[in-house]
Amino acid sequence: MTSENQADLELNVAKSHLGFPVVGIGASAGGIEALRRFLEATTADSGMAYVVVMHLSPDHESSLAAILQRASKMPV
Question: Structure pTM?
């Protein structure tokens, strides 16, 4: 990446005032197993927050939080 592209990128990125990184993870319903494995391998003291966004049918009741909680040492 050129320094000009880097400068453009920095101008378009909002600076966070949080004291830790926030990581966004998105997947469709087929990605639940990958998310489960990711959370099993992630330590609870990583110093990061994870935001999970799933593409699921609005007509389908989700138990995603319970599934991910069983895989994670972090609160879901």
Answer: 0.70
